[in-house]
Amino acid sequence: MTLKYELNPIGRVDKKEGAPVFLVIEPQYWDAALRIELFSHLHIIWWADGFDNPKGRSQLKDVPPVEGAEMSGVFASRSPARPNILCLSIVKLEGVDSESNRLIVDQISADDETPILDIKPYIPSSDRVDNAKVPEWFRNLVKRYTE
Amino acid sequence: MTLKYELNPIGRVDKKEGAPVFLVIEPQYWDAALRIELFSHLHIIWWADGFDNPKGRSQLKDVPPVEGAEMSGVFASRSPARPNILCLSIVKLEGVDSESNRLIVDQISADDETPILDIKPYIPSSDRVDNAKVPEWFRNLVKRYTE
User: Fold this and answer.
1) CATH number, domain at B86?
2) Would you call A40 an interface residue with chain B, using a CB distance cutoff of 8 Å?
């Protein structure tokens, strides 16, 4: 496969000790946030830049960092080390700061200054799965947005 | 911003009339699917190659194609036309065909031959949101995986 696709960051994470978590959008992309305040939750696709090296991008298997986990393919784990180092986080949108082109969110597992590639609204009709099956080692994680 | 990130397809959609929907994984990435059968649902990140042109990639706003929708930023819609033409679909994993490096899934909104960039397991503890808020025009869509 010699196909290559090019992506540009549309923003970055601003996550400083003691401050809210911001997703800072590049000014030229701010119009793409129109009416985003009508949604409570978002999917954030970010670039795991710490793994943007031949080792990180050739990793096909790992052991997820939870108790009892077994060696798994990266398509069966959420490891940031993977062929295309895309990460996906679901976050709660807590505010929109139009003056500084920023979204305020509750949390994100990405580090400060992580490049953001895309933002999509969370739409329950197709994004929410009741009764999804996962292996034992992912069953007792802390629930973030469910009862 | 002059940063650019390169991605390579890890597979493609095989969706032919009257046949199951397959996600065909490139042989060199098949090890990344180890233990994927332990999950019932997956996130698929795919490349909206039909919009890989200056017009598609400069679109910042559109009207979502549902009744009553208002003009929205693409970060507030699921339009494939957007700065980085990434799309995200949640699918049900129905089978794994190791001999042909294929996953069998229930559906995907991508066309036949669409490039796939990443696959991640759906983990309810962080991916399922109960009571997410959306604008009126996304409230009456057909529910796929919820009651």
Assistant:
1) 2.40.30.70
2) yes
CA dihedral B134, A89, A77, B48 (to 10 degrees): 70
Q: Chain A partners of B142 at a C-beta cutoff of 8 Å?
A: 125
**Which of B61, B75, B128 shows the shortest C-beta gap to A129?**
B128
For A88, the closest of B26, B120, B129 (CB atoms) is B120
Is B100's pLDDT higher than 60? yes
ipTM: 0.97
Task: Please check whether residue A3 lies inside any domain of the structure.
Answer: no
- B32-56 pLDDT, tens digit per residue, is 999 999 999 999 999 999 999 999 9
Q: State the pTM of this model.
A: 0.97
pLDDT at A5 over 80: yes
CB within 8 Å: A121 and B138 = yes
Rg of chain A taking only CA atoms, in angstroms = 17
Q: Would you say residue A90 lies in a domain?
A: yes
Quote the number of domains for chain A. 1
Select from B38, B42, B37 the least CA-distant residue to B122: B42
Its domain, for residue A20, covers: 11-138
Residue B3 lies in a domain: no
Cβ of A82 and B126 within 8 Å? no
Tell whether B19 lies on the interface with A, counting CB pairs under 8 A.
no
Q: Which amino acid is at B52?
A: D
* A1 falls within a domain: no
Phi, psi of A63 (to 5 degrees): -105, 115
Beta strand ranges found along A16-97 (DSSP E): 21-25, 41-47, 61-62, 72-73, 86-97
